Amino acid sequence: MPPAEHSEWNWIDDVRRRAGSGPRVAIGIGDDTALLKTSTATLVTTDMLMDGVDFVVGETPADLIGRKCLAVNLSDIAAMAGRPTGAVVSLALPRRGGRALAEGLYDGLLRLAQESGCPIVGGDTNSWDGPLVVNVAVLGEPTGRGAVTRAGARPGDRVFVTGPVGGSLPSLRHCTFRPRLSEAQALHQCVELHAMLDLSDGLSSDLFHIVEASQVGIELDAGAIPIHDDVAPGQPHADRLNHALSDGEDFELLFCVSEEDAQTLLSQPPGGVELYSIGRCVPEPGVWLLGADSRRPLGRGGWEHRFT
Amino acid sequence: MPPAEHSEWNWIDDVRRRAGSGPRVAIGIGDDTALLKTSTATLVTTDMLMDGVDFVVGETPADLIGRKCLAVNLSDIAAMAGRPTGAVVSLALPRRGGRALAEGLYDGLLRLAQESGCPIVGGDTNSWDGPLVVNVAVLGEPTGRGAVTRAGARPGDRVFVTGPVGGSLPSLRHCTFRPRLSEAQALHQCVELHAMLDLSDGLSSDLFHIVEASQVGIELDAGAIPIHDDVAPGQPHADRLNHALSDGEDFELLFCVSEEDAQTLLSQPPGGVELYSIGRCVPEPGVWLLGADSRRPLGRGGWEHRFT
C-alpha cells in the first residue's frame, strides 16, 4: 500500500516524485503493491525501530531517525554482499506533531535512498495515539559469487572488521553511519568471503552468530581491536575495550577469509575499504579474547559481563 | 534480521521449523537477510497494524491478530493477481504478556502462511513499553499476463466484486477473512482484468482509487450491491447499504472487465469464485450511485457522508 494516499498533505506528492524512480521500478508508490524488476534471487530483510528504544523523538533529529531506519536494513543487505533494489516504509505516527515528523523522516529516508540507489517503492502511513514506530523492509540482489552468509567460516580463517567500533550511541553515529554496501561489494570481488555479518548488537555478541552458524570458534586479538574515537578517552583501556566489544550499533562489517586471501587484502586493500585484522577462527566452538599472556572466554555481552 | 534470535524462548526454534520451508527459500530465518528464488519481476507490499487501531489486544484473539496482519498483505498480492513467495514479520511486543502474545500471533501467522503457500522467511522481534505493533511485508510474483494495476479500467467496462460487503468489524471477519488469491488467479486466467484492487477502506472510498488511476467514472447500481449478512438486518435498507458502502475491511476484490468478458464470466463463472456485477465505468470522472430513478454522486465515505 502506498504511503498515506488518502492524506491531503502536499508532501506525499513530493515523496512520490522523489521516491519512485529507477530503472528497476515497474510499479512504484500508488497501487496495491509495487513491482520490481528482479534477478533470479532476491534478498529481503526488515527492521522495526521504536521511539525510546532505537531513537528518541524530540532529541534525535527526525531526518536522522528516517536515515537510520533505512540504513540498518541496507547494512543487512551489505552483510550478504548484496545490492539494494527497493524499500517499503511503514510508519505509525503519533497524532501530535505527526505531520512534521513524517516530513523530517522522509527527508532523511529519501536522501539515503538516493545515495544508495535504493528507491522507496511503497509503504503504509498511519496515525495513532502511541509513540513513533517505523518499519522498513529492503529488497536486494546478490552480487558476484552470490550471497555471503554467516555459515561458511573455517578454522584457520582470519577475521576482519571494516572500521573501529564502540561509542556509536552518544555520538549519534548509530544514526549517521554509512552502510558498507560498496565496501562489501569491493571485498566480494577481490576475495572469497567465507562468512560475513554487520555489527549491530556489539562485536562480542555478533561473533556468536558466526560461531553458531559456521560451527567454529573465534580467537580475538585484544590488542588489534580498533576502538573508535567516539569511546571517551579518559578511562582505563580495559573499559574502552569493553565499549568496543559490547556497545553495539557500529554497523561495520565483520568477515572471515582464508589466510591466503587475508594476505591479499593486507598487501593490496581494495580502494576505499578500511580493514582491521582482529582475530582468527579455530576448531573449538566459542569466543576467546587473547591478551599479551592470557586467553579468556568471552560472553555475548562482552568480557566484563562474564567476569564481574 | 531473524525473529528474536537472542531470545531463549523455545517457540523461536519452533517458528524456524514451521516457517522456513518451501522450494523458493534459499536462505530462511537466521541470517542477515533471507534469500528467495524469484522470477524476473517481484511484487512487494507492506502493512503496519497497531493495537487499538486494527485490533484490540485482550479482545481480539492473538492468533487472529497474527492471521490478519499477514492476510491484509496477501490481499494486496491478490489484488495484483499475484502469487505470494515469502513474508517477513516485525513485532514490537509489550513487555507485559509479550511472550504469550508472540506465541499466539505466530500460531495465526504460520497457519495462514501454510494455507497460502507463503513461507515466513525472516523478521525482527522487539520488546518495548508501548502497545503491540506488527508489520508484515510480503513478496510475490505476477501470474499469467502480468500484474493487474488500478490503472486500466475503460469506459464501458463492467465492475464486479467477489463477495458481499459491510459489517466486517463487529463480526471479526476483518481478522478471519480468506485472501482472494485463488479467485484472482482464476479470474486472471479466464479474462483480461483491466483494473483490480482489494476492498480495504470501504467500497465507496476504494472506488476512487480506480477512478483516479484509470481516469474514468464509475456508476454503481445501488440494488446490485451485495450486502453482507454481518450487517445487522433490523435497520432501514438505506442504512444497511451505507454499511456496505463505507464499513471497509471487506478484503473482497473489485475489478473491471470489458462487457464481452463480463458476459463470459456471468455465463461461465470460474469454479470457486463468487461474482457480483455492481456497476459500470463511464467517461466522466467520479462515482455515482444509481437508484430506481436517481443518480447521486458518492463521496469517499459513502453517500450519507455527502448528504447529511
From TrEMBL, chains A, B:
Organism expressing this protein natively: Caulifigura coniformis
Biological process (GO), any one: thiamine biosynthetic process
Its biological purpose: Catalyzes the ATP-dependent phosphorylation of thiamine-monophosphate (TMP) to form thiamine-pyrophosphate (TPP), the active form of vitamin B1.
Name of the molecule in the record: Thiamine-monophosphate kinase
Binding site for Mg(2+) 5: 201
Other observations noted: Reaction mechanism of ThiL seems to utilize a direct, inline transfer of the gamma-phosphate of ATP to TMP rather than a phosphorylated enzyme intermediate.
Residues involved in Mg(2+) 2 binding: 47, 76
A family per Pfam: AIRS_C
Residue positions binding Mg(2+) 4: 32, 45, 76
Domain PurM-like C-terminal: 179-285
Xref: HAMAP family: TMP_kinase
Residues that bind ATP: 106, 123-124, 150, 200
Gene: thiL
